[in-house]
Design goal:
Layout: E1 2-6, H1 10-16, E2 22-24, H2 27-32, H3 39-49, E3 54-57, H4 63-74, E4 80-85, H5 88-99, E5 104-109, H6 112-120, E6 125-129, H7 130-135, H8 140-153, E7 159-163, H9 168-176, E8 181-184, H10 186-192, H11 196-216
Parallel strand pairs: 1-2, 1-8, 2-3, 3-4, 4-5, 5-6, 6-7, 7-8
Helix pairs in contact: 4-5, 6-8
The protein binds SN-glycerol-3-phosphate (G3P).
Amino acid sequence: MKIFLDTANIKEISQYAYIIDGVTTNPTLMAQEKTGYQIRDHITEIAKIVHGPISVEAMSQTAPEIIIEAEELAAISPNVVVKIPMNEAGLQAAKVLSDRGVKTNITLIFSANQAYLAAKAGATYASIFVGRLDDIGHDGIQVVSDSMEIFRQHKLETELITASVRHPLHVINAAKAGSHVITIPPKVLSLMFRHNLTDVGLKKFSDDWAQLAKKQGTGI
Ligand code: G3P
């Protein structure tokens, strides 16, 4: 399962660049960054750090407008993947863009039927928002699992992204469901490194090493 980082923050992207395969942004994440950059400069900056796909959202409403905006965004960097909303206008645009070789990520998907339609429209990626489903008492990972079964059975080429990730258990369950990609907020990724037993074990090794050093020095 590929890991994308769900942030537009340059510092966080730099911190985890060695372990991530791409980045996803959205208007909310972009708005949190007070960089003073134009969108174009911000994306160019991210592309210098990460050499994988960078999702950037198109905000137009109609299919013709989405196509124009998507082509402008895609021209910023070959790594740009244009995020397009899951609705009829979005999928009409995605089909045209896919035929023209522009990479797309259909966003705000909440059902396996929506994921299936995104794949039929030729989207490069389809993003299922598991956390927002869990928030309203649904089972987000079940939608990932159902969608993956459909994608596998019908040999659909679209890659499924598990998005709206809230905690490390989402990562384990998305991987078990076979999700091609997961996009993880930096805060959740930082938790994945940690285990209390690792901290306890490191402290013991460090203490024991200090004892040994007292007796015979630390040379190897
Ligand atoms: O990038 C899309 C998605 O991951 C946003 O998640 O936390 O706003 O539901 P969230």
